[in-house]
């Protein structure tokens, strides 16, 4: 019997060339291009961070900035209170303060008579509400009293109630608050951001 053997054919063709890879010129150009791209990206990043830091500094909203903004927005409210609302509430305030003062006087001096001396403007205002007064109280006109001042007379003496002075104090306090609002805050209260 015969055995088979693999046939060994020798090739006489030249061996295929193994790729040598990129040339040295190519590799040098590639390295230069990559370095240039990295520099460009680093410059863009630095520029973006600088702009971002400047933007954050512009938007920095500290506690003092917030306080100043809120109080500045209240300035028209304070002005309206001082110039329009408070003067118009003197009559209502007078009635409320007078009612409280009468309660105190009545608690001490019942059933003695209580006199309420008023300025002409306030007398006209309170006459409309005279029916609400107790029978032991009477309104009297005193031309020498300024508006907003009331004298309450009992057998123990007189008590002065000055509603106008209370309103003037409130107006002064609100004007002081408006002045404080308008006052600039020191520079050290501001926050600085840097890249």
Key terms:
alpha+beta, single chain, 4 strands, hypothetical protein PF0899 fold, rod-shaped, 5 helices, 4-stranded mixed β-sheet, 195 residues
Number of strands: 4
Helix content: 55-70%
> What is the string of SSEs from the N terminus onward?
HHHEHEEEH
The first-to-last residue Cα distance is 91 Å
Q: Write down the Rg.
A: 46 Å
β-strand amount:
5-15%
Task: Walk across the major sheet and give the strand order.
Answer: 2-1-3-4
Which regions contain 5 or more consecutive residues with pLDDT less than 50?
Answer: none
Counting helices, strands and paired strands, the structural category is alpha+beta
Largest sheet: 4 strands, mixed
Mean pLDDT: 75
Describe the structure.
It is a single chain. The protein has a domain of 136 residues: hypothetical protein PF0899 fold (2-Layer Sandwich). It is rod-shaped, with a radius of gyration of 46 Å. β3 and β4 form a beta hairpin. The longest helix has 36 residues. The chain is α+β, with helices and mostly antiparallel strands.
Give the helices and strands, then pairings.
Layout: H1 24-59, H2 63-88, H3 90-109, E1 114-118, H4 120-127, E2 137-141, E3 149-154, E4 157-162, H5 163-182
Helix pairs in contact: 2-5
